[in-house]
Amino acid sequence: MTQLITYQTFDAGDPKHIHALTTLWNEACGPNLHISDRFVRYNVQPNKGGAQAGRLAFAGEQPLGFVLASTLQGEPAVRSPGLGWLDALAVSPDRQRQGVGSALLAWAEQWLVEQGCQGCTVGASLRPFVPGVPLELATMPFFAKHGYVENEIVCDMAADLSVYRQPATLRAIDGAVRPARRGDEPALVAFLQREFPGRWRYECEAFVRTAQARFADYMLLWTERGVDGFCVLTFEDSHQPIERFYPYQLPRPWGQLGSVGVSADRRGRGYGAALVDAGLRRLHDNGVNGCIIDWLVIVDFYARFGFTIHREYRQMHKQLV
């Protein structure tokens, strides 16, 4: 006799729920996209102005699948309040194609509608599990069957920094790049409010509020007028878990570089390349070998630094109402 499927509201404070999400994701996604309980705890932390809800499916005491969805209100420069995210959805392989995933997805979409959302994006949330549907999982047909439309492909790039060399095309700049120091926060936030008032500004403000976060993981470009650019680094001992970038196929130690931005009126002068080079040299000098640059559309710029495409994701979206 088929065991009755029951559902529970996800409780971010329940270690059993956290571990169930970890186990289900790993069973469904495999070792190349492995996550840990620490990863899940980080990703389900509250976000300022944000709301997140989830559901777990069980057969008796055995978890079968889970879904997480989220929204953001009061930050239209970051996300329209009419658009929500499907943060993550996973079903145990032996229970797939039995309606569990469809039921969880339907619940998440209804929750988003109740929050006032008119559309939903798969992945790419404020604390993303993935920036889209990983192509290697081949689950796009599931989402297409439920009305999701394919958008652009984004990718992660990777390189082995043990052999890193500065590109011959690197230009001298009228400025200097160094790790951020305590006291630099107002200058960095003012720069982001001026140049990148959306997600990057929001993420930086959250970072600054986090006591455990190491502010020196930001690299700042200084010119005569102050901060004119930045990039963010992740090391294995950073507050942000390095495993969020799925570096397992690369040689350890691992590192990540991302969110590179330069003032609009200073672009085209080599500042972006100087930032990337300084960040990569710092990672290299700290012993990092396998390095990820995540969530990219334009790849040619980073190819100059020895990076190649590592993983691809299909972004997908659905109109809910």
Reconstruct the topology from this structure.
Elements: E1 5-9, H1 15-29, H2 37-43, E2 50-59, E3 62-72, E4 83-91, H3 100-114, E5 119-122, E6 133-134, H4 140-145, E7 149-160, E8 176-179, H5 185-195, H6 199-209, E9 218-223, E10 226-235, E11 254-262, H7 271-285, E12 290-296, H8 300-303, E13 308-319
Parallel strand pairs: 4-5, 11-12
Antiparallel strand pairs: 1-2, 2-3, 3-4, 5-13, 6-13, 7-12, 7-13, 8-9, 9-10, 10-11
Helix pairs in contact: 1-2, 5-6
Tell me about this structure.
The protein has 321 residues and is α+β, with helices and mostly antiparallel strands. Helix 5 runs antiparallel to helix 6. The model has no long low-confidence stretch (mean pLDDT 96).
Which characteristics define this entry?
alpha+beta, 13 strands, 321 residues, 8 helices
